[in-house]
């Protein structure tokens, strides 16, 4: 995976048991590129935060964590937003406004990446941004 960004994290290594528990709970399998990334950069924040999504500059905040009761816990974030998320959308990161970057598991073996504008709308907008995790990571500038 080509990634020209610099990432930092204050979190310890991800507990793979927690990752597998989330996969089991959601009935999905995270992409291998994502797993490799979070093993090194669990809860990471980028130096270059800007993404261009549909002509709009979006400021990426961080990847969600696999630590129960953490502010960025992936299950807590999902549980807070699941009633407003489109079907088969599972969050893995968040922007500075609280909108979500999600894996979209349609009928494909590899999920695409969708940006879901959950704030301030009661009817979230979902915007396709990448065919896979690798393509998503290449979009930071």
Automatic annotation (TrEMBL):
**Out of the domains of life, which is the source?**
Bacteria
What SUPFAM superfamilies does the entry give?
SMI1/KNR4-like (SSF160631)
Q: Per the record, a Pfam family?
A: SMI1_KNR4
* Gene3D superfamilies associated with the record: SMI1/KNR4-like
Q: Which stretches are transmembrane?
A: none
- Residue ranges constituting the Knr4/Smi1-like domain according to the UniProt record: 13-139
- Write down what this protein is called: SMI1/KNR4 family protein
Task: State the species of origin.
Answer: Paenibacillus xylanilyticus
